[in-house]
Amino acid sequence: MGLEEYKRKRDFTQTPEPPPKVAKGGQRRFVVQKHRASRLHYDFRLEMDGVLKSWAVPKGPSLDPADKRLAMQAEDHPVSYFDFEGIIPAGNYGAGTVMVWDLGTWEPQGDAHEMLRKGDLKFHLDGKKLKGDFALIHMKARRPGSKGTEWLLIKHRDAYDQPGYDIDKYDYSVLTKRSLKQIAGDEGSAAWESSRKASTRGGSSKNDWLADSIAKADAKAKTAKKSAGTKTSSAAAQTITTKAAAANLGRAKETLVGESTAKRSAGKPARPATTSGGVKKNSAVKKAP
Length: 289
Fold this sequence. Notes:
eight-stranded antiparallel barrel, 26% helix, 2 domains, 11 strands
C-alpha cells in the first residue's frame, strides 16, 4: 500500500507528524495503539518493508482463541509513528487520545509477503501484553459496498492463550503506565496535527481544545435540561387549563339542561292522574239503565 494514503490525508506544512518516509533496515516490531477517536478502537501495526502495516481493530486484540476480532486494514504509517502517545487536537484527522497499549517484536511463520498477498498472515508476537501465535485472515465474502479491507485477527491455541480474556482490565500504557483518561487530561502529552482542521490554532496551549470541547458539552447539556424543564412546565399548565375548561363546560351543560326542563314543565297544563287501567280518578261512573 505504501505511504501515499498517509500523505494524502495530511498537510506536512501544517503538522508536526512525521513525513511519509520509508525507513531503512529490516526490524520486525509491532505496536498496538489504543485510540479514542470518533469511536474507540485499537490500531494494530506490524513493521514491514520500512513502514507500519496497519489494521483498526474495533474491539481490540484478544488472547482468547474463541474471539475472532474484526480488523479493518488502514493506510500504512511511517515507522516513526511507532511510539506516539498523546492527543490529536479536535478538528484534525483521527482527533482524539492515543495510548501505546502494547509493543514488542513479531516473527512471520513463513514468507510474510506471500502470506499477506494470499490473505493468510500467520505470525508470533512477543510483546508486553500480547504473546504467542496469531493470524490475520482476509475475509473473502464481501458485503455490498465493501472496499475489501475486512480481516479477522485470531489468537491460536498455545501456552499463552487465555479463555475469557478481558481487554478492559489492561487499560494502561506500556510506556508511561497512564490510562487513556490520564493521557487525555495531561497537558504535557504530545499533540499532533493534520491538515483536516476545523479552526485555526492560535497561541493556546496544546490541551485547550479539550477544555473547550468540555465547556461546549456542558453548555449544551444545561440548555437541553432547561428546555426540557420549560416544555414540562408548559405541558403541565396546558393539562390543567384543559381540565378546568372541561369542568366548566360540564357545569354549563348541566345548567342548560336544567333550565330547558323547567321551561317545558311551565308551558304545559298538568295532566290528570290516571289509574293503571287508564280510567280518570274522581270522574262520575254512569250506571246502566
